[in-house]
Automatic annotation (TrEMBL):
Keywords: Iron. GO terms for molecular function: transition metal ion binding. This is Ferrous iron transport protein A. InterPro entries: Fe-transptr_FeoA-like (IPR007167), FeoA-like (IPR053184), FeoA_core_dom (IPR038157), Transcriptional_repressor_C (IPR008988). SMART domains: FeoA. Residues 1-69 form the Ferrous iron transporter FeoA-like domain. It comes from Candidatus Onthenecus intestinigallinarum.
Amino acid sequence: MPLTLARPGQQMCIRKITGKDETQKFLCNLGFVAGETVTVVSEISGNVIIHVKDTRVALSRQLAQRIMV
C-alpha cells in the first residue's frame, strides 16, 4: 500500500519505491530506501510529514504515494 494510507504514528517498513529513475534517486537521497522503517507524523494541507532516519521530512502527497510500505 502507498505511504499515504498509513495512519499517523504508525511505523511501517518501506517495501519499494516506484516512479521514474529521477524520483527514485531523489527519495533515496532523502533516506527512503527499501527496508527502512518510517513513521507518518502528520498530514498538513496535502503534505505528509514523515520521520525517517532520525529526521522529519515533508513530502507532497504525490511523492508519498510513490513509497510502498
